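Annex B. Sample input.
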Amino acid sequence: MTCTYQNMDVDVDVDINVDVAIAATGDTSRLPIRKILILDDDSFFRELVKRLLTSRGYETLEARSPAEADALLSCKPDLAIIDYRLPGADGTVYIESLRQRGCNFPIVFCSGSTYSQQTLATVRNLLGVDLILRKPINSNEFLEHIQTLLPVPEILCISKIDITEEQPVDSTEDATRATESAANFEVPESIEYVNENYSETPPVQDDEAATTLAMLAALSIEYIAELPSMIAIIHADFSQGMRDQQQEHFQSASDMAHRIRGTAGSFGLEDVSRIAGLLEDTIDREVLDSSTGSEKKNSDDSYTQNAILELIESLENAVAAVAARTAPSSNFTPDEASESSDIESYEDFTAPTDAHKILIVTSSDQLLQEISGSLSETSNLDVQFAQSAVDVFPMLNTFNPDVILIDAELPNINGNDLSRMIRCNSLWARLKIVVILPDAAFVSRDQAYRAGADDYIVKPIIEKELMVRIQNH
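Annex B, continued. Sample output.
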């Protein structure tokens, strides 16, 4: 196409791309738009991804299942974001079917599941997946990845040649600038469609971060309000599974924990995400894993049942803590809600002035006696005890310990898992964790530190060593 720029006595003929001409003339009604298919069975995660993408100028197509995704292929998506764990299907199987049907658009493989090396090799090498992302996602990094795979044409950013009588410019320089602008602009060949309702005003770059944060905050409040009902479904499914020993009930509980694991973390609810992950992994490992050849696995074992029920309760407590901080009851004013809440903000977390508070977590009477005897001679310590991980979280809020001693060999939820759960909550970020290990082997120490421990002490307890550890913290 040849465009003629006229001003005074200057005529410049330039061969440029048709989309550049559209932008130059101000007619934005036929600018191309990039379409992204989102295939995920979690409605909140789809909404999160949708809002992130639309804030950057993409159009989204949403599907809950492969069948719904197939119906949207007629809209000719430019890219697809596909979850691994779909209802009644496997994301890799669906990707394979897309490739067999000649769908060559970029695909992002995204899930909170743990991928085996075989799965990774399959999606990368055989299915041609362009990007593999793990849930929870980081919003900014996610958008950067998508924009790298599928840039939004910056046609609107091309400046029109503005020659005015008041400010004449050299015609040769102007013609060169116009020629270079047109020659350097390329519209990707994959763009075959146009958007009839394209907005004439592009988003302001400086406001993108603030807009994204505001959007995430609003949506996260909706999500937090729905979490209790999701946890109730987990509890109901697991309880029904314990009664009838039907694997589909345990699988349903695991699926819901899996959803929370990926989506809660994407909203920044790290403690909720990690506890849900522990719950999912425990159900999968102890109840659903058929590698042992046992049909029932451990689903009818009281030890396993109690461990899972404790994790469900911990998940409920974590959600309640988040809800208390972010969504106080409408019956209270903000000040009243703050005063009535059982969850203190971190700024209000104050150390005692007259005694140092120590919380000891162990179910062993012998260990409890050893520690009690060691600490009994010290007058400036306020010591309390908990026998299980479930007892710990209410005490963290009411007792506000300075140091917590955790027996690594706790039943149900072990010491390392409890350390991880504590580290998930920013309220207890500065709480010092000392893990009591059965031995001083490197593996034991490494696992404790990786779980978030600040220090360790080895059984049997030596009084002087225990006091040194506590005083150090």
